[in-house]
Design a protein that fits this description.
Blueprint: E1 11-13, H1 21-34, E2 37-44, H2 45-48, H3 53-60, E3 66-74, H4 78-88, E4 95-99, H5 103-114, H6 124-138, E5 143-146, H7 156-167, E6 175-180, E7 183-184, E8 187-188, H8 191-208, H9 212-217, E9 228-231, E10 240-241, H10 246-257, E11 263-269, H11 287-305, H12 312-339, H13 346-369, E12 376-377, H14 380-386, H15 390-406
Parallel strand pairs: 1-11, 2-3, 2-5, 3-4, 6-11
Antiparallel strand pairs: 5-9, 6-9, 7-8, 10-12
Helix pairs in contact: 1-7, 6-15, 8-11, 8-12, 10-11, 11-13, 12-13
Length: 408
Amino acid sequence: MADFHQNGVITTLHNLSPRPLEELESELVKFSKQRPMALILPSLYSELEGPAMPNILSELGKVPYLNHIVIGLDRADQSQYQKAVNFFSELPQEHRILWNDGPRLQALDNDLRKLGLAPREKGKGCNVWYCMGYTLAVDKAESVALHDCDITTYSRELLARLIYPVANPRFNYEFCKGYYARVAADKINGRVCRLLVTPLLRALKKVLGYREYLEYMDSFRYSLAGEFSFRRDVLTDLRIPSDWGLEIGVLSEMHRNYAHNRLCQVDIAHRYDHKHQDLSLRDKSTGLSRMSIDIAKALFRKLATQGEVFTPETFRSIKATYFRIALDFVETYHNDALMNGLKHDLHEEEKSVEMFARNIMEAGQVFLDSTNTTPFIPSWNRVVSAMPDVLERLLEAVELDYKEFSGK
């Protein structure tokens, strides 16, 4: 049973009662007549062969209210794209696959690159950005949800609860962030959120003083969740990073564009587990090490846009303050785990904190050195202004790929 506490400045929608899924879906079917709904699925081809995606596909096949599903497919050659077309053909809903590595979408990407408008690096941010552009182009939804494709505990109730706040015409929310308890296999997961994001936000508050943005970010119960939903008009002016800072970047953009009462977070799952990243203690270019650097950079960039001035001394203070706060959190989570009969490796947790502390300094140095970089993918408003037919070209490329390789 969840608590009903409202923390911070963002409305929290809890899971307070065992409401039947059929009742939720029945309401969403009614809402869909006024606010048609779509789902974006950013996926690697390898996830189609993993343990999570077959169940996700099976669950989505039972969803009665979705008007359209957009799948962004990364790291797939032609034969793999054809297999993906066959894989997703089971869906009863209308759907399309963006073959991001295919020649047609690559040609469009190259044209955007010549104008300085393409994502600077491949990854989830790039995938999501093109899916958002396609959602605008196809224009079949007013409310859109997005979730990852590696959720091993997936139930379609997650999607229903995620999209409900932006689908209900009586609510005024433009954006909704999903959250959940990261407990699975008898242990507490979510190290990056627990041991980096929250203590770093608290350290920034202590070093920099009260900042409304930091209070806003600290209001989210699981800021790194890959599940969120939004109204269609959010997509046009959204600028997101293409690196691991995607989730933090999206929250920062919503802070810039909307009042707090237009945003909310919702409890979407009692149990949630997905593919876990390696800690990568010796390689800053991969795993949780790379993720922690990108997340810290995203926070520093946002604060800088609000006039915050950072120096090497500032980052040293932030790192020292973070380290003490994070170690206290390690003890807190250790006691919480023991109280609930869960496993908790104190040594591994402290190793994570030590790495995150080093990477805060690394992120700070990268931030100070990277004076000429443009970290965000341009908004679709800007792209359309520079290339007026870009959405039509995107729509045509996806459709031609589908027709050529689906046999339809």
